[in-house]
Specification:
homodimer, 119 residues, alpha+beta, 3 strands, 15% strand, DNA-binding
Amino acid sequence: MATRKTNPDFLNGVPELVLLELLSRRPMYGYELVQAIKDESSGALEFGEGCIYPLLHKLEERGDLSSRRLDVGGRSRVVYRVTSKGTKQRAASMAQWSTIAESVGRILQGGKYEQARST
Amino acid sequence: MATRKTNPDFLNGVPELVLLELLSRRPMYGYELVQAIKDESSGALEFGEGCIYPLLHKLEERGDLSSRRLDVGGRSRVVYRVTSKGTKQRAASMAQWSTIAESVGRILQGGKYEQARST
DNA sequence: TGTCATACCTCAAACTCATAGGTATCCTCC
DNA sequence: GGAGGATACCTATGAGTTTGAGGTATGACA
């Protein structure tokens, strides 16, 4: 009952994938990421701070991210960047997402053809 | 803290979508669905019985599915079909999946361009 | 002074899904 | 005739993720 084996996380691990992807472009801090995800998806994806901060901590603990505290105009920001371990993880995650998204897409498309044929 | 509002279920509601889709093509029973999902996705998607059966019950309770018990060769099967309510739900779910899958895809693609430009 | 945006954080509860169990019938092979 | 596997249903525990709501503190603006 310990480790998950099947459907490795993609039917609810999108936040992690998105974080690794965005951070692989440039280092960012938590609050910025929350806004960026919302912006880049035109509002379709909206992960709250309660989702992002714990996830950042988890990824750092796991070694996929490293952080550095910055003071900007009296405010303190924690800026994260992807480690080399995280880069590998990102590639693996992207591959898994692709496989799953294609599979789901194919099933939904299959429905189209079915309907077209039977109509 | 009661009802979920954001990210309406698609970062972990794929099993539900797939069930509604497959059942909208033809009525099927639980055990058959478990195999069908595995087959149609070439093994990429694998939802166990412990996922499918409770979900079928939930969808029926909610009014998206109706069931009928069949006896076939001494074995008892519970065959499910999509109700008109379920058909609407399926359309809504498909639309949501599309939006989210496209958003995630766009973010991942964005990464490609970024890299191409900066390299 | 109050309020809003920025910026960090944590916790409780809700939810889903995986794993592992349980029952019972049928078929095949030995 | 018995063992084992496939078929077919089911539930329960628990791991893991995400939501929603809260809390702290600074800076900007009116």
